[in-house]
Amino acid sequence: MIYTITLNPAIDKIKYLEGNLEQEKNNRVKEKFIDLGGKATHVSAILQQLNKSNIALGFSGELNKQEFYEVLKIYNIRHDYIEVKNESVRESIVVINNSGGSYMITEKGPDILEPDKNKLIKILKEQVKENDIIVIAGSPPPGYSSKDFRELIKVLRKNNAYIACDVAGKYLKVSLEEGVDFVKPNEHELETLYDGNEDLSEKFKKLTSKVKNAVCSLGGEGAMYMANGKIFRITPPKVKVKSDTGAGDAFVGGYIYALSNNSSIHERVKQGIIVSASKVQHHGSCQIDPAQFDFINKNTKILEVR
Ligand code: ATP
Ligand code: MG
Hints:
By secondary structure, the protein is an alpha/beta fold.
């Protein structure tokens, strides 16, 4: 089974204004839509659209859980969240001016207390089997320390699951120390992982000495990865970008889909590129269109880095 873990999911509320945001004025909304927030939930949505069944785990808030579950239902995501009492799933409001500029207003998310942390550990201890795939993505909520995060990974390691971890900063460091199987920092996350002025491919080499499968995503430039001791650059074709929100999660979704089909490292990365380059052509954070896959596949280039 594939499980995704989102420790701090969100409901994203996007509001398009008739004009531009102004103080002490009634700023009228022209159009609105609700989207799924929280990185590993995006991976679940991508996998569902590729017909790969999976279960979304993590923490949701009790107060607005129904609204959150309705958003998960749009993508047919099966879930088993721990519902934190007297708390809500965080909301992120995105206000978009008529002229295009945007404002983001985000909540921190619930404070997770020990009994709920233990519930998640218990579910994982009981359910996760050898060869299951676990995707952990997105920053944890307040009160979920790097010590808690370490414990989470240790439990998964004990069960011999394949652990894919798309997290940043101190959580990425913990992932590498505990020995996860896959990480996908973007350029900025890899730059800040190691001090020093070496170029990105030197930092990438350091990363690959710590984790079996590492990819560094490079936005529209594609990605860097290692296969059989050699570093490769993979580049998608130019596409018309509507939104790059969730691009990294779509990459992880494509990669994990191919991994679960026992594909080679080259095929996994290519699938990540195909799915994410489709995603950026849509407004929604996890919208993709398989009709676009063939064009991207045929026009993606792979080169060995020397
Ligand atoms: P996020 O955190 O917003 O989900 P990220 O920073 O983790 O994204 P990126 O490196 O921006 O991830 O992008 C991930 C993948 O998405 C890239 O490897 C690429 O395949 C695809 N992608 C991103 N931007 C573009 C683009 N402009 N054109 C084509 N593909 C893109
Ligand atoms: Mg990312």
